[in-house]
Write a structure and sequence with these properties.
The chain is mostly helical and about 260 residues long. The protein contains ten helices and no strands. Helix 1 packs antiparallel against helix 3, helix 5 packs across helix 6 (about 130-160) and helix 8 (about 175-205) runs antiparallel to helix 9.
């Protein structure tokens, strides 16, 4: 059932992208929304699609793939958080391109859920403070780090695009992308610290908390780099560190290492 729901959401993502492409080719979708589009626009068909996507992602949590003790369940929870961010993000962000990158990352996570076999335990997840601390901290950190990498990808696309090309104008200025990435990375430090603390209390000195700690340290180092003044006004190395941090978290979920034995 989880594959059917995942495919439905994936199809809705494709439909949404087709609408965007058609509006873009017709010249009716600006890469930089006006103030009325960002803050005052009422419910539209894109909101309807995103709500349907959110509904099916919520239903995904009721399937075996939504078991929070498994990597699939944690990815499903991250998907719900990212979809909520994308639903309301257009009223905050100044460019549609970043929301498109976030949608592409959601599609990658959906394909992961569809293609990789589920590893779950027959028992339920323990509703005690320490596992919940590790779970909530880890999931929230995953959501924030994924948003960070969306802005970092936007930063990279702008950095390596030709100034005369259309792609250059599609993405936000380098300083803007970095500013948003810095904010979300800073927030992820708090949730990541909570998650790492819970994991060490739950599992001790093992592979999962150690790798999660490395990801957290990379986020922290990126934040520190962004605090330093540079001649160019932005910090490419910070985005590289944030990218590696994201890949570590993604590997942890995909490999099944985050699947927790309820007996612990």
């Amino acid at each position: 059932m989880h594959k059917v729901l995942s495919l439905l959401v994936f199809s809705l993502f494709l439909i949404e992208e087709i609408f965007h492409q058609r509006l873009g080719k017709a010249g009716r979708l600006s890469s930089v929304p006006a103030d009325c589009d960002v803050l005052k626009n009422n419910f539209d068909r894109y909101d309807l699609l995103r709500l349907l996507e959110l509904l099916f992602l919520g239903l995904l949590l009721s399937t075996p793939a939504g078991n929070p003790a498994s990597g699939h369940g944690q990815l499903s929870m991250i998907l719900v958080g990212l979809q909520i961010a994308r639903l309301f993000g257009r009223r905050v962000l100044s460019r549609w391109s970043v929301l498109g990158i976030l949608q592409a990352l959601e599609m990658i996570i959906l394909l992961t859920i569809i293609l990789i076999p589920i590893k779950i335990s027959a028992d339920g997840y323990p509703l005690s403070p320490i596992p919940l601390l590790a779970l909530i901290g880890g999931v929230m950190s995953g959501i924030l780090v994924t948003i960070v990498i969306a802005f970092s990808i936007s930063y990279g696309m702008k950095l390596f695009s030709r100034e005369s090309g259309n792609l250059y104008e599609t993405f936000p200025p380098l300083a803007d992308s970095e500013s948003w990435a810095f904010k979300f990375s800073r927030f992820s430090l708090y949730t990541g610290t909570a998650g790492v603390t819970g994991l060490f209390l739950l599992l001790g000195l093992s592979l999962l908390p150690v790798l999660f700690s490395i990801s957290l340290i990379l986020q922290f180092t990126g934040v520190l780099l962004c605090r330093k003044d540079t001649y160019c006004g932005h910090h490419p190395r910070a985005h590289i560190l944030w990218g590696i941090s994201f890949l570590i978290l993604y590997f942890l979920a995909v490999s099944g290492i985050t699947t927790v034995n309820p007996a612990l």
